[in-house]
Amino acid sequence: MISGFFHSVIYEPIYNALAFLVSIIPGGDVGVAIILITVVVKLILFPLALKASHTQRSMRALEPQMKEIKEKHKDSSEALARATLALYAENKVNPFASILILFIQIPVILGLYWVILAESKSSGFDPSLLYSFITAPEASSFVFLGLVDLAKGSIPLALLVGITQFIQARLMMPVAPEKTGKGFQDDLASSMHIQMRYVLPVVLAVVAYVASAAIALYFLTSNIFGIIQEVVAHRTHRSTAKKA
Known about the structure:
The structure is a single chain. By secondary structure, the protein is mainly α. Helix content is 74%, strand content 2%. It has helices at 2-24, 30-61, 63-72, 77-90, 97-120, 155-172, 184-211, 213-243, and strands spanning 143-144, 148-149. It has a two-stranded antiparallel sheet with strand order 1-2. α5 (97-120) runs antiparallel to α8 (213-243). The chain is elongated, with a radius of gyration of 21 Å. The model has no long low-confidence stretch (mean pLDDT 80).
């Protein structure tokens, strides 16, 4: 039931959009279509992602006050929870907004990933999945710009995926949480920061190479868009803070 809903509501629309783009792109370059469909999906999700980024930045700005609250109420978890919620309410920050926004984005991003993964292992589009008003592309090329075979691994693209992921992580988490050794939560935050900044780029680069150049191109486009998004979020957040 759930998988059927996901397939019809998310997977099939993205699949058909990709088929449409391939049919109108000169030479049927699937790589160009992957870039375009990734950008389109990211643009649709951009307002939500930008809002989540603003929330995260606002929460980071409150970290000094959070440390004081934690120290003050270290012996009472109930008092700590009340004081934390009061701090967020006072500064008009909803800590659950970014989580909700993330959950909304995940199915769409997964759908886009699976469509590209399926096409990277296929020789063409499945007519049974196409809408009646979408015709299967007469020709499709899995050689991106006549240079990169999307069905195989690409070391240059994989390296670019790792580099852009590192840049994006650095923009998202500019300051590493201090590992105090006094609490599990603080140490966990510090460890997560290290993994997101240094381990994840390596993992994604390996996955991008092993999966295919098509997946690498998807990751690369997504990362570049994410970098632009973080730059926009930083500027708009700083502008909003000055006005406040």
